[in-house]
Write a structure and sequence with these properties.
Elements (H helix, E strand, L loop, with lengths): L6 E3 L5 E2 L27 H11 L4 E5 L2 E4 H17 L7 E5 L4 H13 L2 E4 L6 H11 L1 E7 L5 H9 L5 E5 L9 E3 L4 E2 L2 E2 L2
Parallel strand pairs: 5-6, 5-7, 7-8
Antiparallel strand pairs: 1-2, 3-4, 8-9, 10-11
Length: about 190
């Protein structure tokens, strides 16, 4: 059996020995890494903003050959956060993301947090009824999705079921911000919706 390493001192100055039977990964840590080191708590939006300032000119995302720098991404997040706040997103407001792994997801994830809202993730592969149940359970105020043929009917079903008040459809073509807000339709296929 490998000899356990002694970690650095804790806040009382006592030497610690990693609990390797319960945390076997500690054996793989370099000797100078302290598993119990205190971490500075930083809100995720602030961490994102600091990263964007620090690495502004570097590539943050590369999606289908289209690159966005951290500075460009930060600008989009700021614009989206402002728009979300104008539509009532703030503390205590749940916003659903029905998005695949695209830059649109990154933008709106951080925009919701920056606006003060809570992100509620929805798997785009879920069936309509699963999404309706989850949206009802999560009490989402708004849903953000892409104008993809596989997603639009699901977003529309959430509107028709009354489980979401607003849907923001973003164009997949540029996979960026130009969202168009939809409201519950008054008439569709001869049916009236209240």
């Amino acid at each position: 059996m490998d000899k356990e390493r002694t970690s650095s001192a804790d806040h009382n100055g006592k030497q610690r020995t990693p609990d390797t039977p319960r945390k076997p990964w500690l054996k793989a840590y370099p000797a100078d890494v302290d598993w119990s080191a205190p971490l500075k708590g930083t809100p995720l939006p602030a961490l994102f903003e600091n990263t964007c300032v620090r690495f502004g000119s570097r590539v943050a995302t590369n999606f289908l050959g289209k690159e966005l720098t951290f500075a460009e991404l930060a600008e989009m997040v700021n614009l989206a956060a402002s728009g979300l706040q104008k539509h009532g997103v703030g503390k205590g407001i749940n916003v659903g993301l029905l998005l695949p792994n695209t830059p649109t997801y990154v933008v709106f994830y951080y925009a919701i947090l920056k606006a003060g809202g809570t992100v509620v993730n929805f798997n785009p592969l879920y069936a309509r009824d699963e999404l309706i149940h989850q949206a009802r359970d999560a009490h989402i105020h708004m849903l953000i999705t892409l104008d993809l043929a596989a997603l639009f009917p699901k977003a529309e079903a959430l509107l028709e079921a009354g489980t979401v008040k607003h849907v923001v459809m973003c164009p997949q073509g540029n996979c960026l911000l130009a969202g168009v807000a939809l409201h519950r339709p008054a008439h569709r296929h001869g049916r009236s919706h209240g």
